[in-house]
Design goal:
The chain has 130 residues and is α+β, with helices and mostly antiparallel strands. 32% of the residues lie in helices and 9% in strands.
């Protein structure tokens, strides 16, 4: 998980060859091979950490709360979950604002299970909005 933090915080200033994309470089660097599977794992790691935060992970700064958790920005409390949990009309459907629960698939549970190594991939049920 430390590699995800490195990516997000710009700590990884390694010189990648100009002929490799970022995904190619980090999939190879972090997983020893550059395949569709390792690139998927890289993307799932980045997205999961960005949305779920790193509260249950070692070596993650406590202010990396993730989009779905309350946090602060420049000392101001921020909680974006209402934009995703159906309590605000934040979705456009047929030209009208509607409330949609985009987190009906377990909210953080599938993301945290992946980040902590309990699952090998992010497992979200296809019957959810999530």
């Amino acid at each position: 998980m430390l590699f995800v933090v490195a990516l997000l915080f710009g700590v990884s200033l390694a010189q990648r060859p100009s002929n490799l994309t970022i995904c190619d470089y980090y999939a190879l660097s972090l997983y020893g091979t550059n395949t569709n599977a390792t690139q998927l794992k890289l993307m799932q790691s980045i997205v999961s950490l960005a949305y779920a935060g790193g509260a249950n992970l070692p070596n993650i700064p406590p202010d990396l709360t993730g989009i779905f958790n309350p946090g602060t920005f420049n000392g101001t409390p921020v909680d974006l979950q209402a934009w995703f949990n159906g309590s605000k009309e934040s979705t456009n459907l047929n030209g009208a604002p509607v409330a949609t629960d985009w987190l009906d698939g377990g909210v953080l549970a599938p993301l945290e299970a992946f980040l902590t190594g309990q699952t090998a991939t992010v497992n979200i049920n296809n019957s959810t909005n999530q």
